Amino acid sequence: MEFKKIKQLRKEKKITLTELGEKTGYSASFLSQIERGANRPSLEALRKIAEVLGVTVAALLASEAPQVIQDQETTTLGYKVIRNSSGSIYNPWQTNSTYYDTLFNLPVHTNNMVISKIYIDAQSSSSGKKIAHNLCEINYVLKGQATVELKDETLTLYEGDAIFLEAFTQHNVVNNTDDELMLFTLQF
Prior knowledge:
The protein is of the alpha+beta class.
């Protein structure tokens, strides 16, 4: 997968590969390989690049999408366009300790793709019980420490760790610490 959007944004902002490397801590060679699709970046690398370029990681992941327009209607060109933030913050579990900040909710063929930041208060959990849904899910720990309760085991994830869950996998994300937990979640 090429990340042409990185090169496009870098050029628009008049940032050289060397300058981007200095600001992200990665070599110009590595960044060039990412732009050309010769190297697959980690989510952490994308986060650092996005931060320097002043965009979201989701914007980099949606790099091959057509130009953004005002609404989500299918155009005569045959594509859907989605703003980089839906602006919806919601609490699906009706608790005081967890809320979701939806970054994207994309109709993809017959399924949806939902990209969110999830905030879980100290000593709390995402849903209060193990749940399963019909979407695959990737959870990346942006801040804090997550305990993921699965059917037969419990895993601890630290900042920078991620977990992929197949659709219909029962799980509950717990914050057993005294600090807020923040996850980047992709459901598809």
